Every structure is written in C-alpha cells, then in structure tokens.
C-alpha cells in the first residue's frame, strides 16, 4: 500500500490498459471458484463415501454386536437355566445327602445295636457253654466217685474239650489244659472192665442150671447095665425080674465124697437158685465197687460148687476156672477227682463276672 501511495497517478493510457485487462482477472477468479467448488464437491463426495462406508461398517459392527449380544443373551439364558438346574440338583443332592446321612446314622445305630446284641449273645453263648461244660465235668466226677466208671468219665472230659475247642477262645486255654491233665491221669489208671466182668457173671449164672450134682455122678457110677440071662423057663425069668425090681427098692452106693448130701428135686432147685442169687449179689457188689462183698460172694459160690456139684465134670471145671479168673482180677482202683478241671472252670467263671 505504501507503494501505491508513492507512485504517481496513472495516466489515461494506463487506465485504458487497466480497463482492457480487468476481464481476464475475473475469468481466472471464476475458474478458481469452479475448481474450489469441484474440490469441495469431491471432498463432499469423499466425505459422503467415507460416511457411507463408515455407516456400513457401523451397521456391520452393530449387526455383529447385536448377534454377539443375542448369543451372549442366549448363553446367559442357558447359563441361568443350567444354574437353576444346578441349584435344583444341588437341592436334590442336599435332600438325598440328608437322607443318606439319616440312613447312615440309622445304620450306625443298628450296627451298634447289632454289636451289642452279638456281644450279649456271645456272652450268653459262652455262659451257656461253660454251664454245659461244668455239667459234663460234674457228671464225669460223679461217674468216677460213685460208679468208678473211668471210660464214662473220659468220654465226658473229651466231650467238654471238644466243646472248648469249637469255642476257640484264648481265655479258655487254662481250662483246656486242666482238662487235658485230668484226662492223662485217668488214662494212666489200670482199666477195670466192669461190663466184661458183669457179662462173665451173667454167663456163670446161666450155666448153673446145667452143672451136674455130685450125687448124680455117684449114681451114674453105680448104675451098671443089668443083663437078663436067657431063661428058657418062664417062671425062672419072672423070678429074676422080680428080684431085680426088689433090689431097686434099696440101693447101696459107694460115695467118694461122703459129705455130699442127698437132695430131693426141690432142694436141688433151691440150691441152683441160691447160686444164681449169690452171683447176682456179686454183680451188685461189682457195680458198687464193694471188693470185699464181691470176693465173699465168689468164695461162697466156689464152696457150694465144691460141696454139691461134680468137680470132675467139664462144665463144673469151666465154672471153677471162671471163678478163679474173677477172683484174681483187680476190682477196685483209687479214683482221682476232677478238682483241677472244676477249679479252673470256677476261676474262669469268676473272672468273667
């Protein structure tokens, strides 16, 4: 602007030149405006294109986001449903767990009750078994002391030991040991065959009826066959037979044992019955372990056989041999008691209480 003030005013020629040059400047200005407008339009088109592209991308993003949100919502619904199902299952499991716990507690109570019942039954069974064993020991002791039956006592002790073996309790070992000691003591005793001796006495009593008397043997010796001579005369034959009959009325016997009494049939019967009675009393003395009475009865039977019966006959000799065998046998044995086993049993029962 300072240049314009310093320059001189233009002349008319210059003014005309300026007038002639003004239209090209306006044309260039219009071209410049058109270019700007095109640029602006292009920029606007680009902006619109960018906006449309962004809008489309935003729509795609929004669509994808909505889809993802829908999927997430569906998953949330499923998760909620699964959570509800899980909660329902948890409640059911809790109920079932409660039932199981109650059943377990009930089973525990039942097990405790069964254990107590088993222990009670076991105690009762042990007490019952000990009572039975005590009865067996008492019976065995009575068999020894009253009847002297060693075999019966051994059988009772063996039965008691087998019962203890089936129980299989360590606390019963001292009792089993005591029973074994008593069994060994009984097995070391000399055996007396009481049943065999009793059968022997029965055989003797049965043979008494067949034993021949001494008087019968003498009569057989005196008897000789009478030969009737052939008589041609009938009267002589009749006279001889009458004489023989007359001789039978009076008999003279040569007796080797003059002390042998003459017995009628009734006395013979009572003699044999007396012998049987003596053998029966000997059997009773045997069962009562009365050694003195047993031998006394056998001696009486032997004396009676020597006095009244034929000692030369085979039956009498066999009876005498049987009597000698019975008299030589051992009848009485000092029987031990079963105090060891009984004391062990009582100590066990006292300790169990």
Task: Give the SSE layout.
Elements: H1 2-6, H2 12-147, H3 150-167, H4 173-187, H5 194-207, H6 214-222, H7 234-249, H8 265-287, H9 291-308, H10 314-328, H11 339-352
Helix pairs in contact: 2-3, 2-11, 3-4, 4-11, 5-8, 5-10, 8-9, 9-10
Characterise the protein shown here.
By secondary structure, the chain is mainly alpha-helical. Among the domains are: 105-190 and 341-352; 194-328, no CATH class. The chain contains eleven helices and no strands. It is rod-shaped. The two termini are 142 Å apart. 14% of the residues are buried.
How would you sum up this structure in a few lines?
The chain is built from 11 helices and no strands.
Outline type: rod-shaped
Mean pLDDT: 76
Helical percent range?
A: over 70%
Q: Which spans have pLDDT < 50 for at least 5 consecutive residues?
A: 1-21, 220-226
Largest sheet, in brief, is:
none
Structural class by secondary-structure content: mainly alpha
β content, as a range?
Answer: under 5%
Count of DSSP H/I helices: 11
Secondary structure: number of strands: 0
Distance between the termini: 142 Å
